[in-house]
Each structure stands twice: as structure tokens, then as C-alpha cells.
Design goal:
The complex is a heterodimer of chains A (334) and B (300).
Chain A: E1 8-21, E2 24-37, E3 41-45, H1 52-59, E4 68-71, E5 74-77, E6 80-81, H2 87-93, E7 98-101, H3 115-126, H4 131-144, H5 150-153, H6 163-175, E8 181-185, H7 193-210, E9 213-218, H8 221-227, E10 230-235, E11 238-244, H9 245-250, H10 255-262, E12 312-313, E13 319-320, E14 326-327, E15 331-332
Parallel strand pairs in A: 3-9, 3-10, 7-8, 8-9
Antiparallel strand pairs in A: 1-2, 1-4, 1-5, 5-6, 10-11, 11-13, 12-13, 14-15
Helix pairs in contact in A: 3-4, 3-6, 4-6, 6-7
Chain B: H1 3-10, H2 27-33, H3 35-52, H4 54-57, H5 90-126, H6 128-142, H7 146-157, H8 161-188, H9 191-198, H10 203-239, H11 250-257, H12 266-293
The chains are: A alpha/beta (334), B mainly alpha (300).
């Protein structure tokens, strides 16, 4: 809940990503707007295929185009619109001011380069550091992400690192140029639970030390509850709810968010089966005309499939896109 | 994934801190365990050393007439492998000819690998129209029989070591290009290549440090076999009289011996054996490297 009032580092307005496919144009991200300020953690959650990772890739224009078409009002970062920046200028921002870590740290590290060299590569690209100075900085970075014996470890190849250590190494590479924004795309999904907790703790403390904005993409609400300040829930490429983490977990407003919460294991009530959300995420090729969640929603009625619900303020600084949501501002609409 | 990668992935984190053990996945370890690669290397080394020290061991010019003609091998201690129809020492000739054959083989293969790597990487990495054009060009080259094509190139440029190297390289780069293109296509979407793009690396840098080092194993294997086939092509060209007239090569020795094949077959057989030996060594080395560099093949 920090820094909510401070100006945004990254401001995204109406980001839209479409994919040109043989069957037609698919809208993977639909007019998504959000912003994140320094020192703040924004979590983007949703099921597989809801557009979380595409959003992350689109921010830095990393999607291959064609087939992807990225549009929108703006993606403002440090006074520049990333949507309209030239590729060359964008490359100076990637890895330098905005960095990213991935889900699978094994495949995100080059197997034929030592971990140290991979950090040095980024240092050379974005900072003036060369030779011995770059090497010293690489060792410092490995130390920063709590890798034991960093000086010796720097000359090891990635296959000699454990899963958790590889993710630490990835974080070290991402932090090499002291970015203002770190995008973490499911950073702990490939790790086991104990390592997962360590990595999250590390990310949190590094964020505090360095004052970065963190965009955490996850489908794990447990991870989100521990880490995020603000949560953005996506469904079928659209934002359906955005609240502060405390408000969201205290009282989710969108039926989809509520269903997600119910589907998560809770230690206090042991049972054989978890609740699941019936059906699957609709194909982007034929989204229902109204609310995309209506076919799976337990409280939907006719009006839900008629028009697409607008995103309305929820009264506590958040927003929700559901005509059945009890709106704090104007009472219950439904 | 090598066994080590997998074991590192599934072992508990503290397993990494065990004292260093023999790295069964390392290149040198696997190389020393591969009998094929070792035999190939030994054979090639013998030929290469002979070529390097040819001037020291046999100081005479191989084209000099040093004895009476048609001395059969193993009959005269001064000329252990005999003399040819002009009285030139065959052993001296074989060793000196090895220089030319190896030089042509290695430089032609090197040139072909360079061309192939550049074209293949550009074509595979960028895709689109660049790929379209480059793929069509490779296909055009592949429609022509390589030997005939090489003959044409050498005949047009007049026979010399340079034109022979060029002729062989021009006919053999497409296979390397196709190989590198396929590898690049595979690696282009690898996560660490994506990660490099996320880190703001430029295209050249990504190709040089992230794609090529990971694509190089099959190229090394293909390259060593390419040296062998270049030596064969050079021999064929020299046999056809398209060799460098001022230099002696195994092919030209066979070509010269052809006329007396019925009475003095050793003049053809000995350089033929030298070619077979060298090509065999290179092929063994290539196959051995394939086993060594491919972690899925276990070495007995």
C-alpha cells in the first residue's frame, strides 16, 4: 500500500494487442490500462491464456510482428511513449530501465555462457563498465541476490546452478543496469514451494532497497497476497477488477475474482476437491458479445450477455467491470 | 539436456556444493572416451605432421628426377616407395602432395563454413523476405552437380590453388547454410534468446553470442566431413587435369599414373591409399565429434 499517490513510473493507456491468424484477428489484450509507481508492486493475475504474459511482452514490444499488432493510446515511461519509440531507442530501455525475468530460469539462461559472462554482457550493453570493473560488479550482483561464494560461482555454467539459484542469477542479470521497472513473469512457477518463498522474499527486499516498480505476473493468489500492493485481475484480455491487495482479499467484487479465490486451497478447511470454475476461458476467436465471463458466471443474468460491462470505480480507489458488483459509490446497481 | 543438467535440476540445492567430481559431460572427457574420434585425430595428425614437416624430411623438390624411372616400392632403400615414370621419388611426392591436398581441403571447407554460417544465420534469424531470397539462392546452387559446377568454376578462372578452393567452397556452402538456418530457426525462439532481446541486445550480438555458439556442434561435424569431401573433389579436379600445374597433389599423381596403370599400378595405388587414409581419418573424426558433441549418444 505504499506510494499510491506518487506519480506513476509506467503508465499504460488502452493497450491493445491483436494477433493476425489464418482464422482472423484475435484480440489478446483489449484496451488495458494501468499504471505503477516507484516502489510499488502491481500484480496481474488471471488464468492461463488471459493475456498476462502477452501484456508484459507488449510493453517492451517484444512480440514478433507480424503476427502481433500492438496498439493503444500510450505506454508512457520516463516521458517517452514506448509504443511509438524507434526500435533502436527501445533497445536502450530494454534491460536498462525496464527489465524482465521469466518463468523458467533454466531455459532463460544461455547454456554455453558462464553466469558471470551473462551478467557482464548486460553490464557492457547498458553501463560503461568493462573488463575487471564489470567482473567485480557481476560478482557484487550475484552477492546481492544472495548467491553463496559469488566470486567462484560467477565462472560456473548455468547447468551447475540449482533451479532457485538460476532464478537468482536471472534476477541479477535483470538488476544489472538498475532498472526502474522490473517485470516478473511468473518468476516462481517453475520452482518448488520453499525456494519460491525465498525468491519472493528476495524480490520484495530488492525492490525496497532499489526503489523499483515491480510488475508481478502470476496465477498464484498466495504469491500475490504476500507480495503485491495492488492487484489487476484479467479475464480474456480485459481488466475485470483492479483493487488494492487488502481490499481485494477482504472482499472481491467481480464474480470471476471470487471464483478464483474459492478455487484456491485453504489449509483451514481440508477437503478432497477444490472448487473449480466451470468451463474454460472462452476462445478469443468467439468471445461472447457481453461480459466474457457470463457463460461461466454463477450470478449472470440476461443483461450480462447483452452488453459489455464498463469498468467503474469501486469507491475504494479500485475499479470493477461487472453490472452485478455491489458498487460502493452508487449502491447496488443490479 | 545432459545428464548433469538434469541431475542438477532435480537434485536438492545443497547437492551443488559437493566437492567437484569428474565432469562426465565435459568435452575433453567425452572426447577421450570416444575411440572413433581418437583414431580419426591420430590419423589426421599423422598426415598433418607429414605435410607440415615435408620440407624438412624430404628436402628434394618432389618434381625433381632423382633416380631411374619405374623403381618398384620396397626394392630400393633410397627410394622406399619407388619412383614414377620420370624417376621422381614417390614418397617425397606423397608427403609434399599432402600439403596441397590438406591446404585445399581445409581452406575450401573454411570458406564454405564461413559463407554457410553467415547466410544460414541471417536467413534463419530474420526470416521473411531475406530468408525467401537466401533459401532460393541455396536451392539454385543445389540443383547443380557439385563436381561439374566446380569444374566449370576452375576452368573459367584458370586452374590454381585459389580457383580450386573457390570452386569447391562455392559448391559446398549451401549444405552448411541449410544446417545453420535450421539450427537458427530452432534457437531463435529459445527463451534465452528472448531474454537477450529483453536485455536490449542488438541482432548482431544475439546471433554472435547466443545463437551461433549453441548451433556450432553440428557445423563442426559437417565441417570435418566437408574437409574430406573437399580433398576428394580436389583430387578429382587434379585427375581431370584441372589441378595447379606447378604443384603436386595426390589427385595429379593419380592422374599421371593412369597412363601406366597396367604395368606400374603402384603409381596410382599409393596416392589413392593416401587419399583414402586421410578421408577415412576425417570421417572418423567427424563421426566421433558427432558422438562427443551429442549428449544423447552414450559412449561405450
Amino acid at each position: 500500500m505504499t506510494a499510491h499517490a506518487s506519480p506513476a513510473v509506467l503508465d499504460v493507456a488502452d493497450l491493445t494487442v491483436r494477433f493476425r491468424t489464418p482464422t482472423g484477428l484475435l484480440t489478446a489484450v483489449d484496451q488495458l490500462s494501468f499504471s505503477v509507481s516507484a516502489g510499488e508492486t502491481l500484480a496481474i493475475v488471471g488464468e492461463s491464456g488471459c493475456g498476462k504474459s502477452v501484456t508484459a511482452m507488449a510493453l517492451l514490444r517484444l512480440l514478433r510482428s507480424p503476427p502481433a499488432e500492438i496498439g493503444g493510446r500510450h505506454v508512457l515511461f520516463e516521458g517517452q511513449d514506448l509504443l511509438r519509440l524507434r526500435e533502436r531507442a527501445l533497445r536502450n530501455i530494454r534491460g536498462n530501465r525496464i527489465a524482465m525475468i521469466f518463468q523458467d530460469p533454466l531455459s532463460a539462461l544461455n547454456p554455453v555462457l558462464t553466469v558471470g559472462d551473462q551478467i557482464i554482457e548486460t553490464l557492457k550493453r547498458h553501463t560503461g563498465l568493462r573488463g575487471a570493473a564489470a567482473h567485480r560488479r557481476a560478482v557484487e550482483l550475484l552477492d546481492l541476490v544472495r548467491i553463496p561464494e559469488p566470486a567462484r560461482r560467477a565462472s560456473d555454467y548455468p547447468h551447475r546452478f540449482s533451479g532457485g539459484m538460476r532464478q537468482r542469477a536471472m534476477i541479477a542479470i535483470a538488476l544489472a543496469a538498475s532498472p526502474a521497472v522490473l517485470i516478473a513473469d511468473e518468476p516462481t512457477t517453475a520452482l518448488d514451494v520453499t525456494v519460491q518463498a525465498q525468491i519472493l522474499k528476495l524480490l520484495n527486499s530488492l525492490q525496497r532497497e532499489l526503489g523499483m516498480a515491480l510488475i508481478l505476473i502470476s496465477h498464484d493468489l498466495g504469491v500475490v497476497a504476500e507480495t503485491a500492493d495492488r492487484v489487476l485481475v484479467m479475464y480474456a484480455g480485459r481488466k475485470v477488477e483492479e483493487r488494492s491487495v487488502l481490499d481485494l482479499f477482504a472482499g472481491p467484487l467481480h464474480p470471476y475474482t471470487r471464483a478464483l479465490m474459492r478455487a484456491r486451497p485453504r489449509p483451514e478447511e481440508l477437503r478432497e476437491f477444490l472448487d473449480e470454475i466451470p468451463g474454460i476461458v472462452p476462445s478469443l476467436a468467439d468471445l461472447p458479445p457481453g461480459c466474457a465471463f457470463a457463460p461461466r458466471c454463477s450470478v449472470a443474468y440476461e443483461a450480462c450477455s447483452a452488453t459489455r460491462p464498463a469498468l467503474l470505480p469501486s469507491g475504494d480507489g479500485g475499479a470493477v467491470a461487472c453490472i452485478r458488483a455491489p458498487l460502493a459509490a452508487g449502491g447496488v446497481v443490479a | 539436456m545432459t545428464f548433469e543438467t538434469l541431475s542438477a535440476r532435480f537434485a536438492p540445492a545443497r547437492a551443488v556444493r559437493r566437492p567437484r567430481r569428474v565432469r562426465t559431460s565435459s568435452f575433453s572427457y567425452r572426447f577421450w572416451r570416444s575411440r572413433t574420434a581418437l583414431i580419426g585425430t591420430a590419423g589426421l595428425l599423422l598426415v598433418v605432421l607429414g605435410a607440415i614437416f615435408a620440407g624438412r624430411i624430404f628436402e628434394a623438390d618432389p618434381l625433381d628426377m632423382v633416380a631411374r624411372p619405374f623403381i618398384w616400392p620396397f626394392t630400393d632403400a633410397a627410394h622406399p616407395l619407388g619412383t614414377d615414370m620420370l624417376g621422381r621419388d614417390i614418397l617425397t611426392g606423397l608427403v609434399h602432395a599432402g600439403r596441397v591436398s590438406l591446404a585445399v581441403g581445409f581452406s575450401a571447407a573454411a570458406l564454405a563454413v564461413m559463407l554457410g554460417v553467415v547466410f544460414g544465420a541471417v536467413s534463419g534469424y530474420f526470416g521473411g523476405w531475406a530468408d525467401q531470397i537466401l533459401t532460393r539462392v541455396t536451392e539454385v546452387f543445389q540443383t547443380m552437380p557439385p563436381l561439374v559446377f566446380a569444374v566449370v568454376v576452375v576452368a573459367i578462372l584458370t586452374p590454381s590453388v585459389g580457383s580450386i578452393v573457390l570452386g569447391i567452397a562455392v559448391t559446398s556452402w549451401p549444405q552448411i547454410a541449410r544446417l545453420v538456418r535450421a539450427e537458427t530457426l530452432r534457437l531463435r525462439d529459445a527463451e534465452y534468446v528472448q531474454a537477450a532481446r529483453v536485455m536490449g541486445m542488438g541482432h548482431t550480438r544475439i546471433i554472435l553470442t547466443h545463437i551461433l555458439p549453441n548451433a556450432i556442434s553440428p557445423v563442426v561435424v559437417a565441417g570435418s566431413i566437408l574437409v574430406a569431401s573437399a580433398i576428394l573433389t580436389e583430387a578429382a579436379l587434379s585427375f581431370l587435369g584441372l589441378g595447379d600445374p606447378n604443384l603436386i597433389s595426390w589427385g595429379s599423381m593419380i592422374g599421371a599414373g593412369r597412363e601406366v596403370l597396367r604395368t606400374a599400378w603402384y603409381m596410382t595405388a599409393l596416392p589413392g591409399l593416401a587419399i583414402s587414409f586421410t578421408v577415412m581419418a576425417l570421417n572418423l573424426l567427424g563421426n566421433g565429434l558427432n558422438d562427443v558433441l551429442n549428449p544423447r549418444v552414450s559412449l561405450s
